């Protein structure tokens, strides 16, 4: 392993020296080795971001609960129906206050995301991620400290949640941009679908870890996830190569293989059958039929293998960070951003309220409710992989998202109607709901964001990855902030059935916002079928 520059993380430099001393004749595919390292490290990185987000949804069940079924300790007035609740959530409008905690986190997250993406483009992503993880871990720990120190001020918890939201914005732009820089323009649907299971795995581990301590000491439900995030953050700082050039490598952009990606001015090939022989009538650049401008300059451009496949207009090696307006002008960014607004609203309402809904709609304890809610995230893992695989096969991510949206609405209605009737049916419908709700959410925030961030209008590199990712995820995060807040108000004033009707309506709106892109993808599919069957002209 040679060629590691001084920009390489200190852990990689130490491993290089160690391998050179112990195994001087060791030869490996360095690119594949580093790509695997990046995938694993970024996977566990973002897993811990969700690991520290999830405890609040489990702890809600003990911050405010039904005290009538519990035995009050000596000296407590049995007539006080709020004796078991944690102040300041010991009021009749506790769901509204708990929703305000979610909103403090999510609105600060959504607002800071747009800035975070632009900052990520201008700094070393390894420092960006490791520092963000450290600060996020500190805020997670502070929330648990509120129980240890007996803090009952709503302002304290709101400030901690807002600070955590800002710190967590470092995760998504940093990890997606890092992976995008290492994998170029290769097909990323399935890769990102499997990689995006970190979100669901983080939710599952965060739920299980928080549920383990929620009935004993809910402070520990925050302390242990914070500790795990701090440890992974240290590994990121030591070993994450944020760009190939930092370890003396380069990832060349790959040319698009689909016929629909041809240049607009390229003529469709026509085959002429002369007797039993077929010949193509596509113009040759060296013939008299060649279009103007295809002379010596083009031959010179293909003179050697090291020439970049996609050139930048300025001919320079690296452009500056793109502006917000230029990123918004990329075709599809606005549509997918607005669709994600509603998709993330649905997903995050489940993320923050599902354990409490299960606890109130069934006879399960807070711990059992938290453990059952992980079935939704198990479905999310399968949904992310399935959506990515279908998008890779069809080459139509918007069409895949639309199909998932159309199926998720009746599934949510079925869960609301029959989910509480039996444990087995609850699990089955939760898995199906997680698959259909998280599938398009995962696809848009990963593979679609990466594809749009390396759009042909940007010369096909990772120039706009962080900004485009921040725009799409930031817009979705506004919906993620609104959903749990509205769910808290609606569940307090009305019933949980109204919350489900709201979520179903949001799925329908997410579908409608992608219709223009879906029509475009269907036209592309028809065009590709025509290209696959070239026109035949028989001459005798």
UniProtKB/TrEMBL annotation:
- Transmembrane helix as a keyword? yes
Which UniProt keywords are present, listed alphabetically? Membrane, Sugar transport, Transmembrane, Transmembrane helix, Transport
Q: Tell me which Pfam families the record gives.
A: MFS_1
The keyword Transferase is annotated on this UniProt entry? no
Sequence similarity: Belongs to the major facilitator superfamily. Organophosphate:Pi antiporter (OPA) (TC 2.A.1.4) family.
Q: Tell me which stretches of the chain form a coiled coil.
A: none
**Composition skew (Basic and acidic residues), residue ranges:** 255-264
Annotated membrane topology: Multi-pass membrane protein
Residue ranges annotated for the Major facilitator superfamily (MFS) profile domain, each copy included: 38-522
InterPro entries associated with the record = MFS, MFS_dom, MFS_trans_sf, Sugar_P_transporter
SUPFAM superfamilies noted in UniProt: MFS general substrate transporter
Residues passing through the membrane, by range: 31-49, 96-115, 127-149, 222-240, 333-354, 423-443, 463-487, 499-518
Chief subcellular site? membrane
> Region labeled Disordered — which residues?
251-304
Q: Where in the cell is it found?
A: Membrane
Record-given protein name: Sugar phosphate exchanger 3
């Amino acid at each position: 392993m040679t060629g590691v520059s001084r920009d390489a993380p200190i852990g990689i430099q130490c491993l290089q020296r160690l391998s050179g001393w112990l195994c001087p004749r060791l030869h490996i595919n360095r690119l594949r080795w580093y790509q695997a390292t990046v995938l694993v490290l970024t996977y566990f990185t973002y897993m811990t971001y969700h690991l520290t987000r999830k405890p609040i949804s489990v702890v809600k069940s003990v911050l405010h609960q039904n005290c009538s079924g519990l035995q009050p300790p000596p000296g407590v007035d049995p007539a006080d129906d709020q004796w078991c609740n944690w102040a300041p959530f010991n009021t009749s409008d506790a769901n509204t206050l708990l929703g305000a905690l979610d909103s403090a986190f999510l609105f600060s997250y959504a607002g800071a995301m747009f800035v975070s993406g632009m900052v990520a483009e201008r700094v070393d992503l390894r420092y960006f991620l490791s520092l963000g993880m450290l600060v996020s871990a500190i805020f997670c720990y502070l929330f648990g400290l509120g129980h240890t120190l007996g803090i009952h001020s709503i302002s304290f918890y709101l400030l901690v949640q807002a600070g955590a939201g800002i710190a967590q914005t470092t995760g998504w732009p940093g990890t997606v941009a890092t992976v995008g820089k290492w994998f170029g323009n290769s097909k990323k649907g399935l890769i990102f679908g499997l990689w995006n299971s970190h979100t669901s795995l983080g939710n599952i581990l965060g739920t299980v870890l928080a549920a383990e301590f929620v009935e004993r000491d809910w402070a520990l439900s925050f302390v242990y996830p914070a500790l795990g995030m701090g440890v992974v953050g240290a590994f990121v700082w030591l070993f994450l190569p944020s760009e190939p050039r930092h370890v003396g490598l380069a990832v060349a952009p790959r040319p698009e293989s689909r016929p629909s990606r041809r240049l607009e001015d390229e003529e469709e090939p026509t085959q002429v059958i002369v007797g039993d022989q077929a010949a193509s009538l596509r113009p040759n650049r060296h013939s008299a039929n060649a279009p103007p401008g295809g002379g010596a300059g083009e031959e010179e451009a293909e003179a050697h293998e090291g020439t970049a496949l996609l050139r930048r207009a300025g001919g320079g090696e690296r452009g500056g960070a793109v502006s917000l307006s230029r990123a918004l002008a990329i075709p599809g960014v606005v549509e997918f951003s607005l669709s994600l607004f509603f998709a993330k609203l649905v997903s995050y309402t489940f993320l923050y309220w599902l354990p409490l809904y299960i606890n109130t709609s069934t006879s399960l304890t807070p711990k059992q409710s938290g453990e059952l809610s992980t079935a939704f995230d198990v479905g999310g893992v399968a949904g992310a992989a399935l959506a990515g695989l279908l998008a890779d096969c069809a080459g139509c991510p918007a069409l895949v998202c639309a199909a998932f949206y159309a199926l998720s609405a009746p599934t949510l209605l079925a869960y609301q109607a029959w989910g509480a009737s039996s444990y087995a049916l609850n699990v089955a419908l939760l898995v199906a709901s997680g698959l259909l709700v998280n599938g398009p959410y995962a696809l848009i925030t990963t593979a679609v964001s990466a594809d749009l961030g390396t759009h042909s209008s940007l010369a096909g590199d990772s120039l706009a990855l962080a900004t485009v990712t921040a725009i799409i995820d930031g817009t979705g995060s506004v919906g993620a902030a609104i959903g749990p807040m509205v769910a808290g108000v609606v569940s307090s004033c009305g019933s949980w059935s109204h919350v489900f009707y709201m979520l179903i309506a949001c799925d329908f709106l997410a579908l409608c916002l992608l219709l223009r892109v879906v029509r475009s993808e269907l036209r592309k599919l028809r065009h590709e079928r025509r290209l696959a069957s070239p026109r035949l002209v028989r001459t005798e």
